[in-house]
C-alpha cells in the first residue's frame, strides 16, 4: 500500500462497515472530513478526536498536542484534556522520552490542556518513535461547529499562512539541504513556524461568530482539506490560486524539494466557511490573526482558478511530505 492516508473511498467504506454499536448519546459521528465525534452529556456535549504523528522526527511532542487540539478547535470548542500514547524505538534514550514529554507539557500549559493519561513503551514494532494522542473538549449542547455544514454562497477563509507545519518540518528534519537555498535568517524564520501551529484561538473566535463550518488543514494541504469539507457537506467550491497565503520562504523550499504547497501538510491554518467572510476576516485580524478569503462554496464543481483557467480538483492522494521521508 502507498504511504499516507487511505483513499477517501476506501476509508469511507471501512468506517461505515465497522461502526460498532450505535449509541443514542452520540450526536455527531466522525466520517470523511468530520474529524471529531460529539457525544451528549446532559446540558453539555463532549468533543473527541485522535491523531498520530508519523512523518516528523523533531518536535513530535509539540506537533502531537497541536494537531489534536486543532481538531477540537475546528468545532469552535476549547480543548481541555489529552491522552498520549508514545511508542519508542529500542534505540531511543530515556532523555529523548523526557524531552518529548517536556514538549507535550509545555504546549499543554500554553493551551490550558490537562494531560489526563496515556501509555508509554519501547517496542521494535516501530522504526522510529511514534506518538498518538486523543484530545477532548466540552461545550454547551448543540453548539459544536461541524465540517459538514458548509452551504452554497459561503465565503471560504484561510487563517495565517499555508504550509507552516510542512515548512517547519523541512527546516528541522532536512536543514542540511534547506541551507543550500535559504540564508540563516530565513532558516530561523522557517523554524519559527512551529510556534504558529495552534488554531485554537481562531477556532474559538469563529465558533463564537457562529460560522457554518470549519476544518483544520493537515495532511493533503488546502486541497485535501477543501475536498474533505466538500465531501462532508455535499457541496462544491471554487478557489483562486493567486489568493493562497504562502510565504516566500515556503515557496522557495517547495520549489527546491519539488513539493506542491497546495497539497502540503498545513497545521496552523484553519479553513472556515461563513456567510459573512469580510466581517469575520476583520474580527480575526483585530485579534492578531491573519485571514484571507480564497473563494466560495458553490453547488457542484470543485475547481481552482489559475490565471482565469478552471482546473478540476480531484480526491487527495498522499501528502507531499511523504516525498521527503
UniProtKB/TrEMBL annotation:
Domain PurM-like C-terminal as annotated: residue spans: 152-304
GO terms classed as biological process: protein maturation
Pfam short name (any one): AIRS_C
Highest taxon of source: Bacteria
Residue ranges occupied by any PurM-like N-terminal domain in the UniProt entry: 33-138
PANTHER family (alphabetical): HYDROGENASE EXPRESSION_FORMATION PROTEIN HYPE (PTHR30303:SF4), HYDROGENASE ISOENZYMES FORMATION PROTEIN HYPE (PTHR30303)
Family label: Belongs to the HypE family.
Protein name: Hydrogenase maturation protein, carbamoyl dehydratase HypE
Amino acid at each position: 500500500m502507498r504511504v499516507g492516508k487511505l483513499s477517501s473511498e476506501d476509508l469511507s467504506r471501512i468506517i461505515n462497515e465497522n461502526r460498532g454499536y450505535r449509541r443514542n448519546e452520540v450526536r455527531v459521528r466522525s466520517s470523511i472530513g468530520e474529524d471529531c465525534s460529539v457525544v451528549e452529556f446532559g446540558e453539555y456535549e463532549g468533543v473527541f478526536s485522535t491523531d498520530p504523528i508519523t512523518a516528523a522526527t523533531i518536535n513530535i511532542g509539540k506537533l502531537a498536542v497541536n494537531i489534536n487540539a486543532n481538531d477540537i478547535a475546528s468545532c469552535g470548542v476549547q480543548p481541555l484534556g489529552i491522552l498520549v500514547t508514545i511508542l519508542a524505538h529500542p534505540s531511543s534514550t530515556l532523555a529523548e522520552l523526557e524531552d518529548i514529554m517536556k514538549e507535550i507539557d509545555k504546549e499543554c500549559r500554553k493551551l490550558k490542556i490537562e494531560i489526563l493519561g496515556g501509555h508509554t513503551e519501547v517496542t521494535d514494532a516501530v522504526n522510529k518513535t511514534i506518538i498518538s494522542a486523543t484530545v477532548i473538549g466540552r461545550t454547551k449542547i448543540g453548539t459544536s461547529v461541524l465540517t459538514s455544514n458548509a452551504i452554497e454562497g459561503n465565503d471560504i477563509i484561510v487563517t495565517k499562512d499555508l504550509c507552516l507545519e510542512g515548512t517547519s518540518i523541512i527546516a528541522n528534519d532536512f536543514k542540511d539541504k534547506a541551507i543550500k537555498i535559504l540564508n540563516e535568517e530565513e532558516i530561523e524564520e522557517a523554524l519559527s513556524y512551529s510556534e504558529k501551529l495552534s488554531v485554537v484561538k481562531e477556532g474559538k473566535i469563529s465558533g463564537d461568530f457562529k460560522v457554518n463550518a470549519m476544518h483544520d488543514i493537515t495532511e493533503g494541504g488546502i486541497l485535501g482539506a477543501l475536498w474533505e469539507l466538500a465531501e462532508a457537506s455535499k457541496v462544491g467550491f471554487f478557489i483562486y490560486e493567486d489568493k493562497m497565503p504562502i510565504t516566500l520562504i515556503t515557496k522557495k523550499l517547495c520549489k527546491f524539494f519539488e513539493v506542491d504547497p497546495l497539497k502540503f501538510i498545513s497545521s496552523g491554518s484553519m479553513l472556515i466557511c461563513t456567510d459573512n467572510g469580510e466581517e469575520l476576516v476583520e474580527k480575526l485580524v483585530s485579534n492578531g490573526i491573519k485571514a484571507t478569503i480564497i473563494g466560495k462554496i458553490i453547488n457542484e464543481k470543485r475547481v481552482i482558478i489559475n490565471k482565469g483557467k478552471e482546473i478540476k480538483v480531484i480526491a487527495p492522494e498522499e501528502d507531499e511530505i511523504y516525498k521527503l521521508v
